[in-house]
Amino acid sequence: MENAIYLRRKNKILLNRSIENTPFEDTKSIQYIATIIKNIEDLGFTLSKSVINVIKNYSKDQLENFYYSIVTDIKLIIGANKKYSPMYPNFPSQVMNATDSELYINAIMHYLTFGEFLPNYKKETRIPLLNANKFKVIDLGDEKEFLSIFTNLLQSKTSLSEMDQSDIKWFFNNKLDFIKNLLPEEIPLKENVALVSKLILENGLNQQLLFRYFKTATDVLRLCVALSEGDISLSQNTRFRSFKRKERRLILSLLENCNNIEEDMKRYKNRWIRLGERLHPSEFKTSYLKTQTAFNKLRNNEKIETFNGKVDKAIKESNLMAALDLLKQRPGEFARKLDYLLRKTNRPNVIINEFKNVAEQVASTVLLQVIEHFKHRNDGKELRAFFPKGNISKVFAIDNTLPEVPEIICNNIIRICENSLINQFKQKDYLGKVYVDEALRNYIVPFSQRSSSKSFKTIVRGSKLDFPKNTNTIRTFIYWKEAHNDRTDLDLSAVMYDENWNYLEHVSYTNLRSVTYKAFHSGDITSAPNGASEFIDLDIESVRKYGGRYIVLSINSFTEQNFAEIPECFMGWMARGNPNSGEIYEPKTVENKIDITSEAKICIPMILDLHENKVIWTDIALKSNPRFYNNVEGNQAGMVLMGKAMTTLNKTNLYDLLRLHVKARGEKCYNKEDADIIFSANEGITPFDHDVIVSQFL
Length: 698
What we know:
This protein is α+β, with helices and mostly antiparallel strands. The protein is 40% helix and 15% strand. The protein contains 26 helices and 20 strands. The strands form 5 sheets. Strands 7-18-17-14-9-10 form a 6-stranded antiparallel β-sheet, with helices on one face. It has a 6-stranded antiparallel β-sheet with strand order 11-12-13-8-15-16. A hairpin with a 5-residue loop joins β9 and β10. α16 (307-316) packs antiparallel against α17. The model has no long low-confidence stretch (mean pLDDT 91).
């Protein structure tokens, strides 16, 4: 598991370099290593020179252990550990050439037998794979860098994905002896405080470690939610468990140690009242008096004056200076309310000048979002897109009805925020000569990853990935396995639109092929007791030739289970040159694989933009609201809305973030060869080095 994490995150592995044994004879060792490399290359990977230099001293048994371990990890990462058996084994040519009646009869027989009937076709010999992509090089890592993954994740200034949280738990379970020294003095994100504190308690570490991390009552609430296995983002209610007396003392002590708890507790009044029924603070008559007072006020509906209440009152009474005096006490709130304030007053220069005085105290993540907001404030976009807080990867889109703000005001705010960020970044270590690849404009800064799905490559929603060279066909695939006696029918679909989002055609279980657009479905399978798979091929040039620009890929749960209820479910995509060469599933052509685990019934993992030759990573869930069946036809309106929202999304990109770091603490370098540090899509620090970006560059 150690190397599985390292390989997934860094494309590196740890090896024992001080092995005392009798290695193979040179000729046999070379043969074994050559065989290992060839088999790994069949999965799209290869070994670096540094890895080969270590394993060439291994014995036969050690080489075998190394081989089986790394192959197991690679197959799991890219989905090659499963058997893919589509309905039509000679896909795509078989679907191209079949008659309509043949496809129709096979589908009817399959449906009438509830998925038991599958047509019996002989698998034909396929020509070898043509136009394979470059291999991913597995390099030799070290223990220090591997352990830094844990610390980097905890120092993240943005929410972590389920995969990130799972990796943190692994470190607690397997590296407990290192944990105390690896824990940072400060954990910026409060959700991470709750997660880590829960793990500290579960693993019997010193409870005093917790007190340095808890600053507000909401921090304590998150801990109680975590201990009750709830949603630490607080977007959903939690059923609190009963706490032992020792736990109650700790929780109440943490709460008593926080400031302004009455106002903070009022934000989640009903949850605190329910939690109070589990904590019984009045049982400790002479202790936790501040906490007891706060609980009594909540239960008795006594008035608790809040900061936001004071600000709203001042704005309502047109007392701008009073509102600004309050907001300067909380610069982050000031930044978030800038647009609202500008719309409520005719004194914008006063607001901007007061904000300038406190801007450097605003968190970098907030400043970056303010910059991007005002950069595109007057673009006149049709929709405004929001990603609500929570564990479900959904996006809301509403009509953009905001009145314009004068460009000079927008530019002033942008300049203030950029200068404040540069001054913040100057406090960090000097970077030296820095090369920043222009391609990083296509990758979004990871502001919030809590609902991101586990994937081979961690990609932020809205990021755009180039099609690999020589790609003629995009092949998407899905694999799932149902729970015992719970028939599960998932459907992979692709919908084609022109540049104005007018519908052209779709390929799904209801329409296995499009002759015009050369798009083909491998056949609808409606149950998966032993696992099932479906594929869709999309000929890029044909779709583009006949007016297509966007292709929305979706996965629909026809039998209405939430994806989270399905034991195994993932999708991925391959870049193919000749779609009839190689096997239908070719590991070395897999560009990414994503686990589908959300509490939803529809998933839109990605959108293809054929004008820009890019994959737009979406990873969003769509609320099920079909007209009759949960299929692509029943969700057209929702898919178009999400498509428009995701293809016009404006979020801070990595290039702009790193440009500010170079201004603050580096020297811009135009050649990679002369650079001390490289930021690019494929080498140096990449967009997939998620832990480094969220901890060191935000």
